[in-house]
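S., here's the first fold you wanted:
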Amino acid sequence: MPSGKKVKLILYEGLQFAALVVPIFVVMERFASLISDARGRDQTAYWLVVAASIAYVTSAVLLVWVPLKFLVLRRRRFSSENQQWRPTALAYLVLCTFPCFAIIIASSKVQVDGGLRLDRFTELPVSLVLVSLICVDIIERIRHCRLIGPSDGLDSDFDMPGPALPQLDQVTTVTAQLPADDGQDGSTRGPPEAKNGGPPGRWQDLAGSPGRSTFSSRAPSAAYLYTSRRRSYSGPLGFLWRRDGRSEVFVDSFLFWLDTVEMVRVAGEPAVFYSAWVFPVYILAFMSTLRLAIAPHNPLLCSAGFALQELPFLVLRVSLIVVFGYVTPVLYPLKNVLVSLTFIYFTFLSKLRIFKRQSMF
């Protein structure tokens, strides 16, 4: 019977392989049907497109996907949680997401040139591409976690600890700051002796570190306080305070890609899809997906989000609203504005000398 690690490995690799292959086949089949309808139900064109999709998937899997997976699995010390970027996710974007978006743009171009409005790729293909993208992201983030039983202390990898006491520094005592008191006989008064012949613990600290008093133990860490706080909630409703980082990864991944999902949804509007605006929409949407190749703990992810998503999406959404009206909710351009302004302020402006004055809040 295979071990649990092998079962988990087979499950993850099977899901990622399905996320790579299924969207391409679905999008290509829809495109083949569109080409067939545009040519008057020509079955030859339909099967040529299907054959091309099979040949592409076979070549991509055998020449790129399988060798890459072999190298990643053999070099386990360079696993995804220890890297600054994720080669598997980057290969997925190049092999699956990019061709799918390109085919959807080509379908719009074919219909516009032929004066047809047959298919907008509205629901199943586009949603399947995005769901597969999110699935690959989730698998890459929880690959190092266990699927059965508790998370084994891995919650700290996903969540931010709550308020905790800061680490305390050594504080100079008043006694240590006073000068030595000379007695009437001219001898320097030293620390009192303990009954066992050695100085007591408090004077031992002063003797070991002159002018400083040390603590017998360090301040409790944030993880310890966070764990203790979670365990303190007990009783009939104690289950309401239970949380697990593995389940939070799913929520975080869907929220992370929500802006890109909305942008792709705008491209499905008939006025946008059958116009030249479909090109910048899908191009910028694909550029935002490049963040998948960056590890979640990489500090570069914040700058990449601003450069690849927030600022380009803001300009594009404002342009779409000016040209087509409110094809996208105003909430999303407002979100892009606020995120962009806060990024610029806290990253660049707050470091200026004028913002470092003590009198300012």
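And the second, which I think is the more interesting of the pair:
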Amino acid sequence: MSSQTHLAFASTAVGITSVIQVPTPSPGPGEVMVKVAFSAVVPSDTYVTDYGRNTNGEYPVLLGLNLSGVVEAVGSGVGGLQTGDKVCGFATTGSRGKGLQERAIMQSSTCAKLPDDYSLEAAATIPDNFITAFYTLFDCLELTLPTFPVSVPPPHAETPILVYGAGATSGQYAVQLLALAGYRRVIATASPRHHSYLKSLGAAHVIDYSADDMLEKILLAAGKKLQFVLDCIGAESTLKSICNVVSSDGVVAMLLPVKEGTRHVAGKDAQMWMELPVDRNLFPDSVKLVGVRTRLYQQNEYLRDNLMPKILPRLLEEGIIQPNRVRLFDQGSLQDRCQDALDVVRNGQVNGEKVVVKVASD
């Protein structure tokens, strides 16, 4: 084990977080060490810290699914990355790759090389939502895998596709990817503050999800009930609405966990499910419900080998994929920055932006 250590932000018990010293390992085969510049805080981080979710009672648990930074060391068998490369990455398993630490050991397949002039701050918003959107659309919903640039329209180019909650950071990537892949009838629901931006990303119709006649407007835009729906909120209330506009043979992909009630971020007493309980399922049996677990995307060998190492770098190099808006926490100590970011996320004070923490001390 390495005698070197570095700082990391971790949950050390239910309800308790702290900056701690952790060992700095060397990258193994197929891995790279990244000096972390920025990381994002997402709702799942609050579920770990506040409720001990997915900890199995074992602490400390490091936090941060996304990171951006510079490659400092490369393990054997790694192709396409070298020391000095700017990258963004997604932590699929274990604490070694989590973003809220000064050094992270990443599987090279979960890293994307960035253009030399790309903002590391902006890059920290990309991995989890980009992967979620791509995996959901082209694996879970089984839309045709695109190759960019798209020269031939896909089979469902003129089929209406609903992105419910498109103002969410994952929804913004879904709208972009659908438009880039040649889908011309993307219907998005979002708060009015996001409408013009979503149209600029490629949505054909944007509907206020708080409007009393939202369901009627969705059906009017689609011309019929919908065959494909992506629920970016994953709450009981959103699924109840979708139930009224999806066709009897449609497919609904819902981002997990499903939250009880209406909130995007589950509160202390709210239930969360990784599979929708039978007594909460309002859909007919003929509708295919798919729960999206982004961490499983590497089970698709094509996505494992191409999505981060090849597809995302090309889209970034060509400037045709837009990062999320950043809400940056860069003041005070690392403890202060991380804690303030967690507070904003757990209190639901985020809207169409990614909460990003500056990790690097220099």
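Why I say that: The longest helix spans residues 301-317. The longest strand covers residues 31-41.

Talk tomorrow,
H.
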